[in-house]
Every structure is written in C-alpha cells, then in structure tokens.
Amino acid sequence: MKLVIVESPSKAKTIQKYLGKDYHVVASKGHIIDLPKSEIGIDIENDFEPKYVVSKDATLRSLKEAYKQADELILAVDPDREGEAIGWHIALRLKAIKENGSIVNRGRPVKRIVFTEITKDAIGKSIKDSRTVDINLVNAQQARRILDRIVGYKLSPLLWKKIRFGLSAGRVQSVALKLIVDREREREAFKAEEYWSLEALLTEKKSAKQN
After folding, report:
1. At what angle do helices 9-19 and 120-128 cross, to 10 degrees?
2. Domain Toprim: where (predicted)?
3. Domain membership flag for residue 199
4. Per-residue confidence at 204, pLDDT binned at 50, 70, 90?
5. For the segment 151-184, what is each residue's pLDDT rounded down to a tens digit?
6. How many domains does the chain have?
7. C-alpha dist (Å) from residue 44 to 48, 49, 51, 172
8. Burial code of 179-196, b = ≥16 C-beta within 10 A, e = fewer?
C-alpha cells in the first residue's frame, strides 16, 4: 500500500477516489511541527538553530499508524516552500528520510509530487514525474519562519509596552510600514513653490542676402 499525505481533508477524499484501493490518502491539516508558542524557540547563540515541537500530536500518531502499513510514502502537500517544509517535517517524524532529505530505506521509497489542479490526469502525471524533497525549498521556509519569529517575538511586546497592546511587528509588514511612513513624511515636508513653464514658437530670421 502507498501512503499519500496531503494537507486538506477535502483534497484527500477527492484524490483517494482518483487513485483507488492501492493508495491510502490522509491529511495532515497543515503543519504538525512548528516553533513553540511559549518561547522564542530559536537558539540565537547556536547558529539560529530552531527548536521544533509537535503541534498536532493526534495527527502525528495517526500518520505513524498509517505509515506502518505502507511500503511507499508519497508527499502530496502544497506546491510551495511551506508545503515542502510540511512534507519534510512529516517524513522526518516518520523516520522515512534524513535531515538532508535522503531516504532512510531505499526499499521503502519516499516521493514528492506536485500538482496545481485536482484532476485525475494531473494527479497521475504528478506521480509519474515525482521527485525527492527539495531541501533548498525547505531551508527557504525555515529561514522565513525563523526571521518572522525573531522579529515578531522580540518587537511585538515592545510595541505593546510603548504604543498600544495588540500591535504586531513583522519581517515584511514593519519594513513596508517604514517605507509608507517615510513617504508620508516627505509629502508633509514638501513646500510648494511658484514656478513658470514657458513655451515659445521660434522661426529663423532671414538675412538680407537670403531675400
């Protein structure tokens, strides 16, 4: 039996119908591993090493039970860096791959499939064109998540203390807000000055010889 893991339960039902009885399609319902909510979860002094925790214990237990019956793992999570990281985390917890994305047991394949539409043809083609986990995409997601956590976790409480409770800071939103504020200050500091635009239609004066 081949275990297929998607993110959405509704997708799981549709894909199960397309693939048939040789496949077992289950949903992770998004991330099952994440940074802890109670602390920053990043060892800043040790190369910014993330300290991940299981965020959905019941889902992980269910996936482990399903994987016990499978001879192949197919990661069909969303086709972006977030999905790539979700699949990587799941496969790691199932002990199907190593941290660098390589397969633990060659006799038990781990495949990554990508599709942008939920049709029988698209699913079939994605399985035919399967690949391994893209560790570069995984690292891109981890870098984004770590930056989000460092900026948000450190600056948001400062905003609550200095300005107003409930405000948030972020890797993208804070920079965008700074650009908007700078532009608004430029607009407010602008002083209108009177100026004139001159337009002239000139013709060449003919000399006496030309006459």
Report:
1. 80
2. 1-109
3. no
4. confident
5. 988 888 889 999 999 888 888 989 999 999 999 9
6. 2
7. 4, 7, 11, 20
8. eeeeeeeeeeeeeeeeee
